[in-house]
Fold each of these.
Amino acid sequence: MKIDETSKQELVRILGDRFTQNAVLIDQHARGEGHLPAAPPEAVCFPVSTAEVSAIVKICNGARIPIVPWGAGTSLEGNVSALSGGICIDLSRMNDIRVVNAADLDATVGPGVTRKQLNLFLRDTGLFFPVDPGADATIGGMAATRASGTNAVRYGTMKANVLALEVVLPSGEVIRTGSRARKSAAGYDLTSLFVGSEGTLGLITEVTVKLYGVPESIVSGVSHFQDVESAVALVTEMVQLGIPVARVELLDEQTIVAVNRYSKLDLPVAPTLFFEFHGSAASVTDQVKQVSELIEAHSGSKFMHSIDHEERNRLWHARHEAHYALLAMRPNARVYGTDACVPISRLAECIRLTREDLERVPFFVSVIGHVGDGNFHLGMVIDPDDVNEWELAEEIHDRLIERTLTLGGTCSGEHGIGYGKAKYMHWEHKNALGIMAIVKNALDPNNVMNPGKILPASPEWPSRNLV
Ligand SMILES: Cc1cc2nc3c(=O)[nH]c(=O)nc-3n(C[C@H](O)[C@H](O)[C@H](O)COP(=O)(O)OP(=O)(O)OC[C@H]3O[C@@H](n4cnc5c(N)ncnc54)[C@H](O)[C@@H]3O)c2cc1C
């Protein structure tokens, strides 16, 4: 869809040089960080207020120009690719921290505030915001993808941590959903509808999130296992026993190879669990004791743990950089990532069957997971120009999702659908997908909001614009 001259002039009148068709900026906004091909927008807008967002949306909706919201562009499923061209609305300049209510443990921020920026701001308050996707994503983008990360096993995902939103609807109307109250039974839960909607229903222009007190004591630790099955069995038992671990991450031996190389560590090359415990000194000591016993029962290596801040940061930084460690394993590679999530009691089986399926794969593959949530990722390090590798990765992914759904799980624990996983929406939701389409159509009858995402391709949607 071409941006017509009248709309362009209107946008320039409102935004000045914050409306741009600069080739470099367009290129930078053509794809996120995943494996999927780029699809560039025709222009990028940088609004600084809700009123500007609303004005842009009214113009685009009136002229049927597709809109792709953009936070930090770290999403992995083609969520920000402009499949139908149109305008990318980059919200990163709406990055003001508006209110911190320390007494109520909440904060209200612009959508472009990043998670690290918020935590830096909170540094002297004794509070923190726990949701931590590996990348320094924006709070708006994280709300839009219902993101989570290593802390979700203890603190929940964005679903649990967003209290209220301000949203610009496709009509340009501005609404508020939710409130600062910790619970509400007042009508349909529109906050939950927009959390995870990936920019297909509206633009989030303000987010109110929950905050938490920085724990009195934090201990991190590592243990290595003979096989992935033992590590996963331990985690399952730990969750079933209700040990309130704050983080528990599985890195298989392949991931350790990559992480050691990239982050200059010398961890033994074996399936490994990274743990972190939060609480009072007594509670953390108790958690460490219980987990040490479980490690022994599952023949893990001696539990090396520490309260040292620097050592802890080094470990978790290496974990968060795992995606880039995989990319560094092969020149010009892309990491074809998956995001299956199953009930915890089926996790060991799902990972075992998946690893069997990977036995003869010719490219480097890692298994890494937020295993306390039943969520794990394959990182298939493929040559994006090799059709055979693409097809094989797709086949593995298809079989993984079939297996996951059979085990009662979901095709996406946290990365969202974008267009990369749209085909699995039929498999997972069956006739409930029709209700999603009705909701989409009711709010966005002209299909201008991030077209081609979440809902699988339909003859009614415009064609794709991949390069
Ligand atoms: C190294 C690495 C590690 C990662 N680890 C994790 C992880 O552990 N857990 C996890 O959940 N994710 C993870 N991700 C994925 C990514 O960081 C998340 O999906 C994140 O929430 C995206 O935020 P963003 O600001 O980059 O959004 P973007 O990528 O810019 O956008 C994501 C989607 O949200 C929409 N959107 C963005 N802002 C808004 C807005 N204000 N209003 C409406 N729609 C909007 C976009 O249109 C798009 O559909 C990782 C990514 C990388 C590169």
Note: The longest strand covers residues 203-210.
Amino acid sequence: MTVKIRNEIVKTDFLIVGGGIAGLQAAIAAGEKGIDVVVAEKADTRRSGCGANGNDHFACYIPECHGDDFDLVLRQVNMTMDGGPWQDPSMMKLWLSRSYEVVQKWESIGINMRPTGKWNFEGHSVPGNQRYHLKFDGKNQKSALTQAAIANGARIMNKTVVNEILTGDDGRVVGAIAVDISQDAPEMVIIQTKSILIAAGAASRLYPGITPAYMFNDAGCPANTGAGQAMAYRAGARLANLEMAGGHAGPRYFARGGKGTWIGLTSDIHGKCITPYQDKPSRQNGDIASDIWPGSYRDRMRDGTGPSYMNCTETTDEDLDYMLHEAMVSEGIDSLTDQLDQRNISLRDSMIEFGSYNIGLSTQGIDIDIHAMSSIPGLYAAGNVVGNVKGNVSGAAIIGMVAGEHAAEYVKTVDEVSVEAHPLVAEKQALYTRLMEGGKGAHWKEAASTLQNIMNDYAGLYVRSESLLTAGLTYLRQLKAEALDSLGAENAHELMRTLEILDLIDIGEPLFLMALNRRETRASHKRSDYTYTNMLLNDKFQTIEKHGDEVVLDYRARW
Ligand SMILES: Cc1cc2nc3c(=O)[nH]c(=O)nc-3n(C[C@H](O)[C@H](O)[C@H](O)COP(=O)(O)OP(=O)(O)OC[C@H]3O[C@@H](n4cnc5c(N)ncnc54)[C@H](O)[C@@H]3O)c2cc1C
């Protein structure tokens, strides 16, 4: 059965790929500037992505709370999980300097940014420093942002998976290929556009999760599968820092994000605090240990000093009640509270074992400039898909806004180009048709599990070396050839899952190449054949880009 192409080409000034936090904020900003906007979202923007059920910490700089010394603010935020060496200082300055604007916008569209009635900063904080993580109630954030985007004129196409970026003869963006998965039979959708924002989130499921048999038990959104990074790479965009894939931490085996919401102390099996940051549970600061060193739980399991626990036995009744019945609800992780209730577990008496998990790419990815544009003219990126700026929900919203504003200017400078006869249309139609005809009957899960094994065993977080990485890269390339030859899908949903795996394989390859090329040990990249840290690379990002069959690896200075 040939996969059909929708008769009508969708035409717009600005296509947004992914209606998560970054995508919706970009739609609002671009709509305000009066350009035509389409948001293509794989799920439903009212409840999709990492912020689907809510978020509760918004890193920001509010001058009336933090004072006028912006340099101090930058230094202090840099010590939290939203800082660190893996973002360009100018990009960090950009998101922080415009963060208050977005806080006010969110408040104006009905997101409760002051549940206590005043600006209240809690959690993810370094003791002794000012606090920057605004404690808000984000449980309605996705529906509020969706309404605001629609009110500003955005057309939202839910159940639409974008799979390819189209560039024209002059190298700039001209369109995209998507698949409508709302019915049993998939339908190809061709989009003609002058500019695109990739806001498709992180790359989960590249490595095995904490419960490999339950692939979707993931602290991040398991539907974010590196599509943005993969499409951008295939189209020739520059990516940064893929080899520095990292992870998250939280209740072991019950993978829920939101570690900053816990009010307790990271402790050993005897209940003794094992970090130097706090000696008493603090609602104001949280426990920054899991932000600074999320791999510690895994490391302690490996060296035998584990397990490690979140110990709330000394948290006050008032704080416990607040954490379980307010904070976790705002963050959309109150399934944890339900689980504790159903099992009659009281945090007053029991510590909860924490684990390190969710290894993948989040803020390792597309390299963007101060306007959020990638190295391809007209192709923007924002949020967790980006490789050189962080900030989580706040960074995603602000960089999304910057992208929307700039795209509104950019589209005035370029003409529309017809994409009907673009060569990738026929190529992709042939691929989708082959997959829907059943291939050789292999299921996407077979490829998914093989991919995760290869990533974990040959490009894992414990040890890497030339021989391991070379072997792994060979296996990955064999997997790609085998997957293209043998995978099949029975319906639109399975086609989406299959395309996710092909995307993940496509970003696995540059990750391997970058890991091979980084001949040193740094953070989670541990080379047994280059055990030292090369200080010449201290202030540098590694980049990769592909032009046809040629792959260019480089190191660039942070800016
Ligand atoms: C439980 C939890 C709690 C968190 N709490 C906080 C917090 O309190 N504070 C904080 O700062 N951060 C928090 N985070 C992180 C925060 O949610 C993310 O940093 C933020 O959502 C990133 O925004 P984004 O737009 O990049 O991606 P997302 O919001 O994840 O959106 C990506 C969107 O892209 C869509 N998509 C993916 N692939 C495609 C495709 N091929 N085509 C079309 N659409 C596609 C997805 O369906 C999704 O809607 C939390 C994360 C989790 C999981």
Note: The chain has a mean pLDDT of 95.
